[in-house]
């Protein structure tokens, strides 16, 4: 909930619980370890149901710095040397929208994150969706940016879950697509700023109207001059994702066309707690805080509490 262990210690002290920061840290990390263990045992039941509901699934990566041991002699004070390499925690969110395409507040979203890579986050996603009985949903929308690590795993996940083809939709985040249109326009150095804006606005409108082939033709038409290679690279982005640009169809169905939910989740779970100047994490510590914050920000703290204090988790811990 808070921004640091010191803040947590101060809040606990105000409530009459006197603990030093080391104890607070130890409790938090063990709590997270027991909860994750219970989750892996696959006994956690969901009271929620997605039967006959419209489910939106998204994933993205954040950024934090890990404290990783560096080879070589110790410092003059006898400390081990370390590097502070940037690493990308993978974050997932599953939520439900109503008939108007707005977030259904009666269903608390599923949020989780891990530093173990794409396969690990998709394994988590598969576990959550199976327990939610995703095959009973009316519609399932996968929405994300153009990251290859996401889209090459979505078909495998759909197959593993046993979802029917008519249930599933894949969509490239509309605003990422528009951003790439802006990058294409910016490469035309011979255009005025007004001409670039006019071209981008025209192609944006075409995307919204479902005229993807027209957009591809427009990009191809300006693939000339000194920046032609860079423009062709941008065109490949649209070619690879053309089947995921059905914005007109999904807008008519009142389903989201933007991935703002996962962008916000990354900010709230990762950026506001684990990312910052001179903040370095041990991997196990980062994993623990990612889990705790994911459930807290999702409004599922009571569920995590049951997981961490279950009889089986306590025996295995």
* Main structural class: alpha/beta
CATH class of the largest domain: Alpha Beta
Number of domains: 2
CATH topology of the largest domain: Nucleotidyltransferase, domain 5
Please identify, by name, the CATH architecture of the largest domain. Answer: 2-Layer Sandwich
* SSE succession: HHEEEEEHEHHEHHHHHHHHH
- Count, helices: 14
Share of helical residues: 40-55%
| Spans where pLDDT lies below 50 across 5 or more residues | none
3D architecture notes:
- With 317 residues, this protein is an alpha/beta fold.
- It folds into two domains: 44-172 and 258-301, Nucleotidyltransferase, domain 5 (2-Layer Sandwich), CATH 3.30.420; 175-244, no CATH class.
- The chain is built from 14 helices and seven strands.
- It has helices at residues 5-14, 21-41, 118-131, 148-151, 154-161, 174-186, 193-208, 212-221, 228-240, 247-252, 260-274, 283-298, 301-308, 311-316, and strands spanning 54-61, 64-69, 82-87, 90-97, 110-114, 139-144, 168-172.
- The strands form two sheets. It has a five-stranded mixed sheet with strand order 5-4-1-6-7. A two-stranded antiparallel sheet has the order 2-3.
- Helix 2 crosses helix 12, helix 8 (212-221) packs antiparallel against helix 9 and helix 11 packs across helix 12.
- The two termini are 24 Å apart.
- The model has no long low-confidence stretch (mean pLDDT 93).
